[in-house]
Design a protein that fits this description.
The chain is mainly alpha-helical. It is about 45% helix and about 5% strand. The protein has a three-stranded parallel β-sheet with strand order 2-1-3, with helices on both faces. Strands 4-5 form a two-stranded antiparallel ribbon. Strand 1, helix 4 and strand 2 form a beta-alpha-beta unit. The radius of gyration is 24 Å and the shape is globular. It starts with a helix and ends with a helix.
Length: about 350
Amino acid sequence: MPRIKAMTTGSIPSFLDMILNFAESDKSSSLENQDTWLAQLKAKEHGQLVLFGDDTWLKLFPRTFSHADGTSSFFVSDFTEVDDNVTRNVPAQLDRDDWNGLVLHYLGLDHIGHKTGPSSPHMLPKQQEMDGIVTDIYHALETRDHLQSTLLVLGGDHGMNEAGNHGGSAEGETSPALVFISPKMRSITAGTTCPITTLDGSFNYYQRIQQSDIVPSLAGLLGFPVPRNNLGVFIPNFLPFFNQDLASRGEGDQDTRETALYAFLRYAQSVMSSAASDYTIKKLHAGTAMTIMATLCTLGIFPIFVESKHVGAWCFLLAWTYAASMFASSYVEEEHQFWYLLTSTWMWWLGMR
């Protein structure tokens, strides 16, 4: 959820957004009333938005989509149905001309990464499946008149580490791919090669940008106002689409002015982004210490409320096991498995008594 917020509002997710991401039933994290590129597209004439895939979008943007078919993301053992439910709707939507925005959120690659890692034998067939879908969509952009000005944005909200998890600061986790695709891109990408690997072994293939940069770039390319809370910067690779000199006032040649302008914009973005996530570490440590003290005090009086030693031992084991499991990187997506095993074990123990 926090990364979707960054990619739709152009703002920086807060610590509270991360906490609310764990509460699937939470409604306070809705972005329905915030200025986003979704809201801007919907405000345009005949604005219709369509969604297929991860139902997180429906929770973040209720009453935003004219048509939607959401899929729960919390069953990470499902590699197939979560994507088939999206793909089966694509051909029909490509034949229609009554929507301004089509969101397709596939979950299969994410689920495979969580369950078996990026080197899983399931990964390559799934990537080839995604390649086929992108090829079909691009072919439609080339051949259908009502899609001639359509922009396909292919990307991920996060990456994964060698274990298939995400949420940390490893380069693989914080370097998801992003590609802007359209037949019109040929005019500014002529002669560009596609690197399979990088010289330094990093994930820096072409250019590194912030996820918030997606928002003003979409606004510029599709012709709608930039959302008001945006901290992103227009991707400079797309400037050749605009014939006018964006920095016509000032001294020096155009390249020099653009370089100076982007240096300032990146600096301003860095300052404002850091301010949005500037937390008092001492207070965070104090709150953690108070939580630990409260837990220890609760454990001290726990025997008073539990008459049976067996029940007390079971509850003690439950509390510590649950607390320890919260440190797992993808536990929020597999918590139901923990409670299923715990409940089954408890029923077995009662039956054996």
